[in-house]
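Quick one: co-fold with 5A1.
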Amino acid sequence: MAGFKDRDKRHFPLTDTSSVVKLFEDQLKGSNEPNLALLSITLGCIENALTLNRSVPSTDDSTLLRPIFPVVDLDTVEALYTKFETLVKGSVDLTKYPEEYSSRDLVKRISDVIWSSLSRSFKDKAHLQSLYSFLTGNKLDCFGVAFGVVAAAQLLGRNDIHLALSEDHAWVVFGEDGTDTAEVTWHGKGNEDKRGQSIALSVAEKSWLYLNGQPVICNRLMEVAAMVSAANPSISMTMDSIEMGALQQELLWLLYDESHLSKYPMALGNLGDLEEISPTPGRPPPLSLFQEAISSSVKNYANHHVYPYTYMGGYLYRKRRYKEAIKCWAEASNVIRKFNYTREDEEIYKEFLEIANELIPNIVKAVTLNTLDHEQLNLLYDPVVYGDILRFYDGICEWEEGSSTPVLHVGWAQHLTFSLNKFDPRTRAKIDVGKDEDEEDKKSDDEEDGEEVDGKKVVDNKGGVQDSENGKGKAAVQKDPLKVVVEEMKEV
Ligand SMILES: CC1(C)CN=C(N2CCN(c3ncnc4sc(C(F)(F)C(F)(F)F)cc34)CC2)S1
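Sure, here it is.
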């Protein structure tokens, strides 16, 4: 049972990074499970001081000497912890929920307690992810509400309620075998919240938002990793708090060493980004962390996560390692093609749009202008690169096929033709777009379970069978005009 114990109190006051790391270390390695509310209040208090309430820089040089790290007093944290405990225990009558495992009603009740305390102001600002924000400003973002529900559940001794994370949404799992699911927060803008509903219905849509049944399911230690990963060192669009970034980085390495990041690809990616900004001597370089994130997704989530590839692709792009960046983006597209695009998948749509319509054109322009660097210019004569760009687009086309919402529009085709036309025609002739073996396998799989629907075989490209109405009463997007464009061009 979590509680604010004396052994926790002796860490206070916290005066620097290492005292915070020691508190987290004691919580992670201690006898009982880490206290999510205590840690979230503490981390949120520090983030607030380092990013929102920075000491106003005075004109004299005294600020140059004054330590910027805030002193976190025990009574500040204890007061907020008690406020949270009073709210939660005062609002949930546990005698109504005598069962050993949590019910949907209980989960909904806890979500309502957090939800009803929120102020109505807009919620997509930064620094709204911690219980410090909730308790001092009644504001939480989408992640913060889900995290708050799990922290409240822990206070109530409900140890079967855990955080579930996709790449753009959060919900909870609960029940005897931890497979019951419930929405507890909202998603995106202008979408009705589905709080209390199970996720099963949404997963059936094969949308990226729910990772088609492959989300990260946290235990208490991974919930600490989520809290640390969700910390935000940014002060403004152009400035980050060095102290907050360093604290987040040290806490992520502590969690990494305890293997609490091994099934959490995005946290590994976050650590890789922090290491790019400020490398820790003796630690693996960013690329190996991004590779670990990819391997974790392949091993634990049937390679259904996109971000591990875009973390690595973005890094390689920044290092001007363009051929390898394009390879990563082709692998990212190889993941997204497993899904059907639905209207709540905007975040990943924007990711692919930026790669297709900005990053790849920038690369093609850069290597055309910079003809002095033969290594770079060769890119336009490299059939492997050309093939990877085609694979990148083919995955997006496949993502669109069978979807209720179209992905591509003529703007995509304009950038596609710009990029592909820069390649030497002989190079374009060299690649073989023949059916590779797994494509043949897929076809044979489909043959097996394809069935006649009014005389014609209709299979989706996800290996399932759906009627020509895309199984959801919506007209499925047929073969996409872009594929025709690419095929026509190959005859050029
Ligand atoms: C390659 C990228 C464009 C760079 N940053 C990326 N992030 C930044 C960090 N990030 C995350 N990093 C750790 N954990 C989580 S849980 C989560 C979420 F499920 F969507 C939630 F909770 F709804 F916000 C998001 C997210 C989201 C993805 S992807």
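If it helps, Residues 305 and 331 are 11 Å apart (CA to CA).
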